Amino acid sequence: MNHHPIYEKLINITSKQNVMVDELLSNHTYTRLGGKADILVTPETYEEVQAIIKLANSEKVAFTLLGNGSNLIVKDGGIRGIVMNLKGLASIRTAENSIVAESGARIIDVSRNALDNRLSGLEFACGIPGSVGGALFMNAGAYGGEIKDVLVSAKVVDKEGNLLTLSTEELEMDYRTSNIPEKGYIVLEATFALQPGEYEQIKAVMDDLTYKRESKQPLEYPSCGSVFKRPPGYFAGKLIQDSDLQGKQIGGAQVSLKHAGFIVNKDGASASEYIALIQHVQKTVNEKFGVKLEREVKIIGEDK
């Protein structure tokens, strides 16, 4: 199984324990869905990321960035070529009133680090399940805050493997979007500018948001978080609820009884069941209210 021609080259770039062949991606996604990756590689330095991109380019091998798999559905047929996971880049450093966090760090951990250093501005992120890279990718936000409010700059690698430092303006961030997907950038680290604050006050805000999230969101089952973007003038969850879809199940996938905007993997769902349920929800809401729900979650990979 290790005779994939590119396997040896990847081991030379990083190390044996960082390169897995035929790895089930359901082990690496929040939804617990997804078939096998031909090769899953977990680099530990920025140089390794650059070298892997250049290798994929020169060998003309398909390349996919997994992120930490929180806002993502991988299909049952898995992903061909090289899949990169950045969980090996997870350091968080604080300097005066700013925090530099590597893209594989969880944005929740960055907001806790801010609290520990009595820095305010990232409270809103204390309940966002994704990685720093994923948070920049989609300009993640919650409870009135968003990444672009506190981001100063990011280090990224472009499609050719070049290292760039870009300002927030250059990343063209807008509601739940940035130019990172279209430009094919891979985020390596982000620098956040924060304000000094009182520990107790910052903690009180975070505790309140954590309570709101835990009381409303179905955290007891695997899910990809909120499935749909908020349609202008509506709430996705309310439209789904008003369409009598709460509890609707296809196979092991279910529209959450706790929060209709979530679809949970209740019982060993396959990706195709999960996707079928998303499409069923979109179709029903459109028929009933004439509103087209747009997916916030990304679907990648191949059918079985």
Automatic annotation (TrEMBL):
Protein name in UniProt: UDP-N-acetylenolpyruvoylglucosamine reductase
Species: Oceanobacillus kapialis
Active site: 176, 226 (proton donor), 296
Broad EC category: oxidoreductase
Family statement drawn from the similarity comment of this UniProt entry: Belongs to the MurB family.
Gene name in the database record: murB
Keywords: Cell cycle, Cell division, Cell shape, Cell wall biogenesis/degradation, Cytoplasm, FAD, Flavoprotein, NADP, Oxidoreductase, Peptidoglycan synthesis
InterPro entries the UniProt entry points to: FAD-bd_PCMH, FAD-bd_PCMH-like_sf, FAD-bd_PCMH_sub1, FAD-bd_PCMH_sub2, MurB, MurB_C, MurB_C_sf, Oxid_FAD_bind_N
Domain FAD-binding PCMH-type, chain residue ranges per copy: 33-197
NCBIfam families: murB (TIGR00179), PRK13905.1 (NF010480)
Catalytic activity from the UniProt record: UDP-N-acetyl-alpha-D-muramate + NADP(+) = UDP-N-acetyl-3-O-(1-carboxyvinyl)-alpha-D-glucosamine + NADPH + H(+)
Pathway recorded for this protein: Cell wall biogenesis; peptidoglycan biosynthesis
Protein localization: Cytoplasm
Ranges in coiled-coil conformation: none
Record EC number: 1.3.1.98
Main location per the UniProt record: cytoplasm
Known cofactor(s): FAD
